[in-house]
Amino acid sequence: LDGAGIRDELTSLWVVSLRGGKPKRLTDPGSEVFDAAWSPDGGRIAFVADLRPESKLREEPQAWQVDAAGGRARKLATLPGEVAAAAWSNAGVLGLIGTSEPAEKLAAWAHYDLYVQERGGLRQLGAELDRSTAFLTTGDLYSAGARQPLVLWLDDETIVTPVCDRGRAHLYRFGLDGRVERLTEGDVVCSFTAVGGGRIATVATEAGRPGEVCAVEDGRLRPLTRDGSRWLGRRRRDPEPFPVPHPDGHEIEAWVVRGRGSLRRKPLVLHVHGGPHVAHGPAPWLEMLALADAGISVVYANPRGSMGYGLDFARAIDGSWGDADADDLLRVVDHAVEEGLGAEDRLGVLGLSYGGYIVNWLLGRRPGRFAAGVSENPVTELAAFMGTGDFGAWIAEIAAGASSLADGRARLADRSPATWIERNEAPLLLLQAEHDMRCPPDQTELVFAALRKLGRPVEMVRYPDESHLMVFTGRPDRRIDRIERIVAWFERHL
């Protein structure tokens, strides 16, 4: 598993007495425990795990319970997809967050719903929202460690949890009586959240500022810290909303970080998020700020496939990466050029993971549209990826709609950027983490070798010891090196 290596040691559920003594394991060491919570009486523990023997092929966790003294685990609740989090209220009502459809439904894997289990069975709360009850916004100014969904009981009648909504992550209050209330407003992204004594605290960014610990009071955020704001200081550049109309009738949400200076023919870089079922938000990535300081503007958007715009919007690219999503992104670029944000012949494209896939896809399928690109830890060849990535077989199905090599080789080739990359003549910088098990180095090496053989301008940089999300978890000097190389590449070629 990326970031962990061979999973020969899994997380188990343990209890230990506050009076001391030897810890006691309550679950089988062969199953990974993802979440756990005490029952109100302290006699049981709810936990989330996949206890099936076939979980080694694909984990589909559900909710279980076990006596605190030990014994056989008993099923608490089952969702059609998987359970991500579970917790009891003090009144004994079980709250769950999970997926309402199996992983085979593709985009549904990132669309989390909120349920409660009562005597009458499972009941969904907030179904009318058509939003994922999870923190799915990406960026340097948010905490990547906050991805685990949260079931937070404010009182015996109310659950609080973040909801992904149009690039923001708002806190919502869900009542057992069916009422739903948004607790935050504006360009807010809430990640880590805690409740206690009827009060709510969250780590949040507002209007592009770095994260601070805030109290949630009467629909507003009251900052309790100022550390992040002091850190960013004069380097702060607030993204400007840049909505882009589409002829199909939907609006593509986008933002612009304007480059320093007053050049009329300013270079412009399109920044593509990973996922694809996550979302850009109102706060910039660090490389966006660095590019802007170098006089290069950045536009970034949430094309079809992104979360926070409804399940149908996310499903629009199922089995067909590179069609609707690429169309949206190219329309954003076209609109930005029309509005004078960048020069037609000074366009770059940048992306990580799925974003790297799109970089290589656009360079190969739309040769000449971009003057330079930077692709980081990408997927490029889906057939090989099925056997080498830690989620390769599943992601290949999401990307191309092919469930096996035998049935889908032609489709896998058609959806693979490596099939088309030799049409590209734009300078391409490839950044690759050597210990990436999500998108292994061979995916980057294939593109590098193909372009190098043709004498095209291509460079590859490999970062030792780093995993897929080096952008968040990498050694600081390597993260700095990454940003400096991105800026230097676009300065040189745009």
- In helices, the fraction of residues equals 10-25%
Which structural class best describes the helix and strand composition?
alpha+beta
Can you tell me the CATH topology of the largest domain?
Rossmann fold
Write out the CATH superfamily name of the largest domain.
Alpha/Beta hydrolase fold, catalytic domain
CATH architecture of the largest domain: 3-Layer(aba) Sandwich
What oligomerization state is this entry in? single chain
Q: First CA to last CA: what distance?
A: 37 Å
| Count of discrete structural domains | 2
Largest sheet properties: 9 strands, mixed
Strand content: 25-35%
- Contiguous low-pLDDT stretches (5 residues minimum) are none
Number of strands: 27
Please characterize this protein's 3D structure.
α2 packs across α12 (476-493) and α6 runs antiparallel to α7 (392-400). The two termini are 37 Å apart. Helices cover 22% and strands 29% of the residues. It has two domains: 14-230, Neuraminidase (6 Propeller), CATH 2.120.10; 237-493, 3-Layer(aba) Sandwich (Rossmann fold). β9 (112-118) and β10 form a beta hairpin. The strands form six sheets. Strands 19, 20, 21, 22, 23, 24, 25, 26 and 27 form a nine-stranded mixed beta sheet that branches. A four-stranded antiparallel beta sheet has the order 3-4-5-6, with no helix packed on it. The protein is an alpha+beta fold. The longest helix has 18 residues, at 476-493.
